[in-house]
Design goal:
Elements (H helix, E strand, L loop, with lengths): L23 E4 L8 E8 L6 E4 L4 E7 L7 E7 L2 E2 L3 E4 L6 E8 L5 E6 L31 H4 L14 H42 L1
Antiparallel strand pairs: 1-2, 1-7, 2-3, 3-6, 4-5, 7-8, 8-9
Length: 206
């Protein structure tokens, strides 16, 4: 009997991520429980969400730099931590809190802390605009200009969109032409078959 695996339920079916890059977080479980660090990267996998915290959950990795057996070096790097094992630090109380999103009177969406350890103040989302690629707004010699790429080049044909009576008339005309062509081909085929049968009969008689 084949083994049946249970489906993994998504932790974030709606994509509500509450931890962002450059957030200060605290480890909630594991051997490094209670230690704090800055988030370097958020791995937004809905089934196995993870974050990389600076200086925590360190692992050694062997990197080969040549073809020889001894041509390698060892680097120490941060390994991902499960999303549920970290929590955002409240900037006022300095304790781990749960976070949620609220709307201000002006309609701005902000992130606030929840729970007993929360101060109730807004926890700002780090601005990562400096991490964006500076080449995003540049246009090279082989790049298509935005105004050309956004220009509409579609020109509808004459009479499009078709009205229902026109479409019905076109369908009837095409059907008639198809039927006429099919009938002519069938007639020619039947005549050819009759001639072939007659010729075959004459050969048999001889």
């Amino acid at each position: 009997m084949p083994q049946v695996y249970k489906a993994i339920k998504c932790m974030f079916p709606r994509g509500r991520w509450r931890i962002f890059r450059d957030d200060m977080v605290i480890i909630r479980r594991g051997p490094e429980k209670g230690m704090t660090g800055r988030v370097l990267e958020v791995l937004k996998d809905t089934r196995v969400p993870q974050v990389v915290v600076e200086g925590l959950n360190l692992r050694k990795k062997r990197v080969q730099d040549g073809k020889g057996v001894d041509d390698f070096f060892v680097v120490t790097m941060e390994a991902p931590v499960h999303y549920s094992n970290v929590a955002v630090i409240d900037p006022i109380t300095g304790r781990a809190v749960r976070t949620g999103f609220r709307f201000t009177a002006e309609g701005t969406r902000v992130r606030v802390g929840k729970g007993r350890a929360s101060s109730g103040t807004v926890i700002p989302i780090p601005d990562n605009t400096e991490d964006q690629d500076f080449r995003m707004d540049m246009v090279g010699s082989k790049d298509t200009a935005p105004d050309v790429a956004n220009k509409s080049t579609y020109e509808p044909t004459a009479g499009f969109p078709f009205r229902l009576p026109q479409l019905a008339a076109m369908f009837q005309a095409s059907t008639r032409s198809y039927c006429a062509a099919a009938c002519s081909s069938i007639t020619g085929l039947s005549q050819f078959q009759n001639r072939g049968f007659a010729a075959a009969g004459l050969l048999c008689r001889r």
